């Protein structure tokens, strides 16, 4: 993989549809990480002519890149069926290389790229790919990848746009993770309050159940002591 040159002159300008789409991305509600990244991938797919958009995040437990966000398309569904929505770092491939090196990648003839995974070349029959790293809070966390089944699909301006989108995704991923954590904490607190309320109700019911039994035992105790005293006095 090599460093890419600056965007050539004459490419799309900031007022092009690609950059206008950034306003749609910025207006996307931040909910869960998966829902947010799915929405971002759909926006990219609607702007860049492509067959699939993936937002991979690194799963440290499995040491794999996992497609948390994916555009809804036949190639995306095939990707899941082939198990290519999870890419172990040990298997290599261009997405892993972008994640490990932080360098962007653009190829218009993936079939001739021996550095790409065989499953992507032969299973998905990908011909064109571009990918950029995703950083969250200054830490590389994943890869944003766009692929197509035909050659020469992408231009340098598309790669620049994808880079801008990846920066936005890094910001909203952090926000979505905070939302998920806040939701989890709130749910845990709600469960704790529910458990405490349940314990209070059960304790109250037990007291109501035990009170008559305790009173009955007191009566029996008094009677037993009186009977013992009577027998003692008559013996």
UniProtKB/TrEMBL annotation:
Q: Which InterPro entries match?
A: GAF, GAF-like_dom_sf
Q: Give the superkingdom in one word.
A: Bacteria
Q: Which residues form the GAF domain?
A: 32-183
Q: Which residues form a coiled coil?
A: none
> What is an example of a Pfam family matching this protein?
GAF_2
Q: What is this protein called?
A: GAF domain-containing protein
Species assigned in the record: Nannocystis pusilla
């Amino acid at each position: 993989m090599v460093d890419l040159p600056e965007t050539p002159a004459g490419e799309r300008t900031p007022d092009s549809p690609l950059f206008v789409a950034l306003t749609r991305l910025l207006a996307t509600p931040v909910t869960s990480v998966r829902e947010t990244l799915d929405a971002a991938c759909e926006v990219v797919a609607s702007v860049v002519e492509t067959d699939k958009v993936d937002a991979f995040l690194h799963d440290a437990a499995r040491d794999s890149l996992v497609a948390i966000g994916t555009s809804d398309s036949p190639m995306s569904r095939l990707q899941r069926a082939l198990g290519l929505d999870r890419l172990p770092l040990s298997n290599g491939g261009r997405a892993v290389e972008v994640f490990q090196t932080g360098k962007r990648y653009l190829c218009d003839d993936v079939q001739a790229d021996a550095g790409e995974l065989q499953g992507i070349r032969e299973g998905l029959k990908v011909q064109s790919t571009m990918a950029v790293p995703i950083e969250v809070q200054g830490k590389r966390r994943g890869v944003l990848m766009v692929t197509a089944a035909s050659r020469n699909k992408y231009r340098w301006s598309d790669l620049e746009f994808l880079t801008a989108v990846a920066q936005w995704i890094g910001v909203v991923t952090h926000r979505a993770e905070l939302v998920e954590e806040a939701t989890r904490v709130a749910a845990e607190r709600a469960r704790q309050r529910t458990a405490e309320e349940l314990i209070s109700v059960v304790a109250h019911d037990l007291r109501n159940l035990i009170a008559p039994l305790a009173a009955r035992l007191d009566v029996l105790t008094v009677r037993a002591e009186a009977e013992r005293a009577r027998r003692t006095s008559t013996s």
